[in-house]
């Protein structure tokens, strides 16, 4: 019944499409994919009849789509506080954005990354055989994160091109990382920094200039827009100097046969260089629509509301002695509306399944594509749950995986109340 058609809830700017309605399902898994805003859906529906392929000709639909695509790029650049020289490249997702950045790193770049990162920001770098990756141990305070990075950077000097990759908000604990301080440390040692803003951008303003990061990566589907699109925004030089991420039409400006029989290619130096093929114009337009909606609504109100809700979740869970909330930075850590926990004596997957089946509550269970982090947080070797085949943790034993609750725009009080009632 969860898959029954859900009625649209009204036309306010920030009404998520699938919250509430006929099927009273409490979607508390925003960190995996946030519900689409009604406003985004409306914008896409208004444009859909005029959909055409971008950059492909003088036809009206193609021209209109090209305009919307390029305007979307400008809207997103503004949303992120990009400078005039920065580029906004459309990708499929955060994962794709970070793999793109890995692909364009200058030769022999040294990368620094905390072991606590999501696999999307942990793993792309070693795909490059010439890139040396320094994995940094999990810090237990934000200050320790800065000190650890500072020390690692200093110890390995001198080096050529260097990159630090860090998440803005953890997809497991929801905890905020000291991005500005990490960026300052990186720059002080001549390194650049990319911010994985997959979990930060939906909950906080992300200003590339103010945070002083070199690139930002995020996904549309976590920012209240669906359609398989993401963004890598930031400094143009490495992007322009590298070979195109994908070779093909759209990325090439001029292709000609050489007299020796080969082919010469002049590649674009704009974002189009890394966007070969027919781009996902609806995805780009949906992200821009979400950016406009969030800007109009104002982050101050969104952050305040979300903090109120996540504080209630935390306080409610604190009343249940069997519940342990997972935290890297301690009880006082600032976090977005994301929180993970384990319940003594319960396999987390069974617990999450019970929340869904018995209470209509959707949460995430597992290791959240951040195995080293979850291992640190659980203090044990985690096991990917074979769904119902995973062993129960006996009372007093540590859980093997965790449960994550996450919320955001449109989460009603009732969903939090129901969740806490169900856990209790
Ligand atoms: N980074 C973080 C912090 C994430 O939470 C996620 C998604 N769980 C990703 C990267 C990857 O995003 P996507 O799956 O959209 O590529």
Main beta-sheet annotation: 7 strands, mixed
Number of strands: 15
| Main structural class | alpha/beta
CATH superfamily grouping of the largest domain: Type I PLP-dependent aspartate aminotransferase-like (Major domain)
Terminal CA distance reads 25 Å
Q: Residue ranges: pLDDT <50 for 5 or more in a row?
A: 1-13, 385-391
Helix content range of the residues, please? 25-40%
Average pLDDT value? 91
Strand content: 15-25%
Give a structural overview.
InterPro entries: Aminotrans_V_dom, PyrdxlP-dep_Trfase, PyrdxlP-dep_Trfase_major, PyrdxlP-dep_Trfase_small. Its cofactor is pyridoxal 5'-phosphate. With 424 residues, the chain is an alpha/beta fold. The chain has 2 domains: 26-36 and 298-423, Aspartate Aminotransferase, domain 1 (Alpha-Beta Complex); 44-295, 3-Layer(aba) Sandwich (Aspartate Aminotransferase, domain 2), CATH 3.40.640.10. Helices cover 35% and strands 16% of the residues. It contains 13 helices and 15 strands. The protein has helices spanning 38-47, 60-79, 94-104, 119-122, 142-156, 179-188, 208-211, 237-241, 281-297, 299-318, 348-359, 371-378, 413-423, and strands at residues 26-27, 87-91, 110-114, 132-136, 162-167, 192-196, 215-219, 230-234, 252-257, 263-267, 323-325, 338-343, 361-362, 364-366, 402-406. A 7-stranded mixed beta sheet has the order 2-8-7-6-5-3-4, with helices on both faces. Strands 11-12-15-14 form a 4-stranded antiparallel beta sheet, with helices on one face. α4 (119-122) links the parallel β3 and β4 (132-136). α5 (142-156) packs parallel to α6 and α10 (299-318) runs parallel beside α13. The protein is globular and about 75 Å long. The relative contact order is 0.16. Residues 93-95, 118, 120-121, 167, 171, 196, 198-199, 219, 369 line the site of 4'-deoxy-4'-aminopyridoxal-5'-phosphate.
């Amino acid at each position: 019944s969860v898959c029954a058609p859900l009625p649209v809830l009204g036309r306010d700017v920030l009404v998520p499409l699938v919250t509430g309605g006929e099927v009273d399902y409490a979607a508390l898994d925003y960190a995996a994919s946030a519900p689409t805003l009604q406003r985004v859906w409306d914008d896409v529906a208004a444009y859909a009849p005029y959909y055409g392929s971008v950059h492909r000709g003088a036809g009206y639909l193609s021209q209109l789509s090209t305009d919307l695509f390029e305007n979307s790029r400008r809207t997103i650049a503004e949303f992120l506080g990009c400078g005039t020289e920065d580029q906004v490249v459309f990708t499929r997702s955060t994962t794709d954005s970070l793999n793109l950045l890995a692909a364009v790193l200058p030769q022999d770049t040294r990368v620094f990354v905390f072991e606590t990162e999501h696999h999307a920001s942990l793993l792309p770098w070693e795909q490059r055989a010439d890139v040396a990756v320094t994995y940094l141990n999990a810090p237990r305070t934000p200050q320790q994160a800065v000190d650890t990075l500072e020390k690692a950077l200093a110890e390995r000097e001198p080096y050529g091109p260097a990159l630090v990759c860090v998440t803005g908000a953890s997809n497991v604990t929801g905890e905020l990382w000291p991005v500005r301080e990490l960026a300052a440390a990186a720059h002080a040692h001549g390194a650049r920094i990319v911010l994985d803003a997959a979990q930060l951008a939906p909950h906080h303003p992300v200003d590339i200039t103010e945070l002083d990061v070199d690139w930002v990566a995020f996904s549309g589907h976590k920012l209240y827009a669906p359609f398989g699109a993401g963004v890598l925004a930031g400094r143009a030089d490495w992007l322009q100097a590298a070979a195109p991420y994908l070779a093909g039409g759209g990325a090439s400006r001029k292709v000609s046969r050489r007299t020796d029989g080969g082919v010469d290619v002049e590649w674009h130096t704009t974002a189009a260089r890394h966007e070969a093929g027919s781009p996902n114009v609806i995805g780009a337009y949906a992200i821009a629509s979400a950016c406009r909606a969030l800007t109009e609504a104002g982050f101050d109100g969104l952050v305040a509301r979300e903090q109120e809700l996540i504080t209630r979740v935390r306080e409610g869970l604190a009343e249940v002695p069997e519940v342990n909330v997972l935290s890297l930075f301690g009880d006082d850590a600032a976090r977005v509306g994301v929180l993970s926990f384990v319940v003594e004596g319960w396999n987390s997957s069974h617990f999450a399944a019970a929340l869904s089946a018995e209470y209509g509550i959707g949460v995430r269970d597992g290791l959240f594509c951040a195995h080293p982090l979850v291992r640190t947080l659980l203090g044990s070797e985690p096991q990917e749950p074979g769904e119902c085949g995973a062993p129960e943790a006996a009372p007093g034993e540590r859980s093997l995986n965790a449960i994550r609750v996450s919320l955001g725009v449109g989460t009603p009080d009732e969903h939090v109340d129901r969740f806490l009632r169900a856990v209790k």
